[in-house]
């Protein structure tokens, strides 16, 4: 059975878990998600003063990682179509002292309200998998990226080596859904949806080919933490 990724359903689901999202994220990943974002902003290091866009930003953790990396000197747009997630992001950004540097914007990744060739980096973390038409989301990310700029996609993946592969599969199927459901105040949909949507998302070389087909050159992928997550980076031609 394929996952129901209709925009309205996804929006509602993230709206419902927004108050618990950050806590659950860090707990269920044993805080490793922070390290993955930290690595991302180092592998995809900002250059110069052109703006950066983070789509499907949720509560803005990757946008804030870029803000820390650039010490607030580069304008960053953090876009998502779920207003509840954005609100938590805005508060967090103010507390961190980046209210000026990071602008939170309500926008659908499939129809971004930005001019073509605007951003030096267009990033997404654990988000493109949720977009109803993933390829359309990817095309939009490429469209608004500057020629020579980079598109960076951080996503869960399946480790290739045993025993990590077996342990991860078990954790994802049997531990994460019930624990997530309990922590998200019984929101059944969100944490059963997660392993399903990850299972359906293309990985490794297959995703590299999709990025190349969307107009990117020199596409590389960096497995993180034994392949539990992968960072894909391409340069817009
Ligand atoms: C799993 S969260 C990831 C949030 C954040 N990037 C992170 O690393 O924690 C996925 C986010 O994608 C957003 N999203 C899903 N489909 C979207 C779309 N079509 N346009 C904009 N945002 C979307 C959801 O609202 C949600 O905030």
Write a concise synopsis of the structure shown.
Helices cover 45% and strands 21% of the residues. It has 237 residues and is of the alpha/beta class. S-adenosylmethionine (SAM) binds next to helix 1 and helix 4.
Mind telling me the C-alpha Rg?
17 Å
Distance between the termini: 37 Å
Number of helices: 9
Helix-residue proportion? 40-55%
Q: Give the biggest sheet.
A: 7 strands, mixed
Overall average residue pLDDT:
91
Bound molecules: S-adenosylmethionine
Features:
7 strands, 9 helices, globular, 237 residues, binds S-adenosylmethionine, seven-stranded mixed sheet, alpha/beta
Secondary structure elements and pairings:
Elements: H1 7-17, H2 21-28, H3 32-43, E1 52-55, H4 61-69, E2 76-80, H5 83-95, E3 102-106, E4 119-125, H6 134-144, E5 145-156, H7 164-183, H8 188-200, H9 204-213, E6 216-224, E7 229-236
Parallel strand pairs: 1-2, 1-4, 2-3, 4-5
Antiparallel strand pairs: 5-7, 6-7
Helix pairs in contact: 3-4, 7-8
The structure holds S-adenosylmethionine.
S-adenosylmethionine binds at residues 7, 10, 14, 25, 56-58, 61-62, 80-82, 85, 108-110, 125-127, 130-131.
Describe this structure in words.
With 237 residues, the chain is of the alpha/beta class. Helices cover 45% and strands 21% of the residues. It has helices at 7-17, 21-28, 32-43, 61-69, 83-95, 134-144, 164-183, 188-200, 204-213, and strands spanning 52-55, 76-80, 102-106, 119-125, 145-156, 216-224, 229-236. It has a 7-stranded mixed beta sheet, sandwiched between helices. The chain is globular, with a radius of gyration of 17 Å. The structure holds S-adenosylmethionine. S-adenosylmethionine is lined by residues 7, 10, 14, 25, 56-58, 61-62, 80-82, 85, 108-110, 125-127, 130-131.
């Amino acid at each position: 059975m394929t996952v129901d990724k209709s925009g309205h359903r996804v929006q509602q689901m993230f709206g419902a878990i927004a108050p618990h999202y950050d806590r659950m994220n860090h707990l269920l990943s044993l805080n490793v998600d922070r390290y993955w974002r930290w690595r991302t902003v180092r592998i995809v290091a900002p250059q110069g003063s052109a703006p950066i866009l983070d789509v499907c930003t949720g509560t803005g953790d990757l946008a804030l990682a870029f803000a820390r990396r650039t010490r607030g000197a580069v304008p960053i747009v953090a876009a998502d179509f779920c207003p509840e997630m954005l609100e938590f992001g805005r508060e967090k950004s103010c507390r961190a002292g980046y209210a000026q540097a990071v602008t939170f914007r309500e926008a659908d990744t499939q129809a971004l309200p930005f001019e073509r060739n605007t951003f030096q980096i267009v990033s997404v973390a654990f988000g493109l998998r949720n977009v109803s038409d993933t390829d359309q989301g990817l095309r939009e990310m490429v469209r608004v990226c500057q020629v020579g700029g980079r598109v960076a996609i951080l996503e869960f993946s399946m480790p290739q080596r045993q025993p990590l592969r077996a342990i991860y599969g078990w954790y994802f199927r049997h531990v994460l859904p019930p624990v997530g459901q309990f922590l998200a105040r019984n929101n059944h949909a969100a944490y059963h949806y997660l392993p399903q949507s990850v299972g359906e998302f293309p990985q490794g070389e297959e995703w590299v080919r999709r990025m190349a087909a969307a107009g990117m050159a020199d596409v590389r992928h960096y497995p993180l933490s034994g392949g539990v997550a992968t960072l894909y980076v391409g340069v817009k031609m």
